[in-house]
Amino acid sequence: MRPTGRLHLGHLHGALKNWVRLQEQYRCYFFVADWHALTTDYANTKGIRQSGIEMAADWLSAGLDPKRSVIFRQSDIKEHAELHLLLSMIIPVPWLERNPTYKELVQELKERDLSTYGFLGYPVLQSADIIMYKGNKVPVGADQAPHVELSREIVRRFNQVYAPIFPEPQVLLTQTPKVPGLDGRKMSKSYGNAVFLTDSPEEIDKKLSRMVTDPARATRKDPGEPEKCPAFNLHKIYCTPEEIGYVTKGCRTAGIGCLECKKIMIKRVIEELAPIREKRDALEKRPAEVEDVLAAGNRIAQEKAIETMKEVRGAIGL
Ligand code: SF4
User: Fold this and answer.
1) Residues 180-201: what's their mean pLDDT?
2) pLDDT digits over 43-56, tens only?
């Protein structure tokens, strides 16, 4: 995950909860992808290190366990740069140019300078990140599957040109619930529409109380349709079947007002975030602890990376 600073409900339901489950089943590697942040914003690097620490603190608070998983910082493992360089020698440029996310982001982020070598090559860096640890499963949503496919192609090419060192990584598809932001768009820090894991109960209540709803409910007397209501996506995640039934009926018959309806969900959100916030508060009091976790993770990751790079150099004949 790129170092985004404080994490929000979108991250919790879109990635973190799944990661916490995966560490029960697999040996997992989670890293602060700080070099990746440079691929789309090389000029704005102020605070990047602190953002990584804040993010890792949220990971730990949400349940990532450094005893089970390797939690580290990409830029501390220089072997990723070497593998990226070596892979870049064998990747045909058209493979990168046809990457759908590349084209989309160039269209979307018009204000950024994306005409860089680093941005075109970010999937090569991603591939290096994955195969460095001989990763065989990558937990992603369907929109990220083409990246993993590209990693597989890169692996096939490396294995064919030099020696069969790397396993082909497989997509571990993850179904995630929709988590819209307060304005109904995708929840994102840059849109200013996020509920952060570290928000206080008062902040959560204030933010979610003004979350957009079905526009058909212009007044209290107008009936609405929950499926057209952004806030209802959170009810679906957080509320009991009885509460969902009550809210659905109340909305369609104008039996309840939107604020009353949202308060039912808000209570659940506050309950769920309470233990996360408690752990986060404890970490705030011991700031060195997150750095220690990353340092310990770096050591484990580096050991494996050194081993892999020995094999890679040997296969190439360097
Ligand atoms: S009553 Fe609830 S589900 Fe219906 S529009 Fe209002 S907030 Fe959304």
Assistant:
1) 94
2) 889 999 999 999 99
Ligand 1: distance of its center to the CA of 206 in Å? 16
Cβ neighbours around 231 below 10 Å, total? 23
> Tell me, what's the pLDDT at 109?
78
Q: Which of 220, 246, 262, 266 to mutate to test the pocket of ligand 1 (most atoms within 8 A of CB)?
A: 262
32 CB-near residues (< 8 Å, 6+ apart): 1, 3, 52, 55, 56, 72, 73, 74, 294
The predicted pLDDT at position 144 comes to 84
Cα–Cα distance for residue pair 109/40, rounded to 1 Å: 9
Counting DSSP H helices and E strands in the chain, the numbers are: 15, 4
33-37, 62-66, 187-191, 234-238: which has the minimum mean pLDDT? 187-191
Q: Is the CB of 217 under 6 A from ligand 1?
A: yes
Nearest to 102 by CA among 172, 37, 40: 40
> Do 3 and 33 form a contact (C-beta atoms < 8 A)?
yes
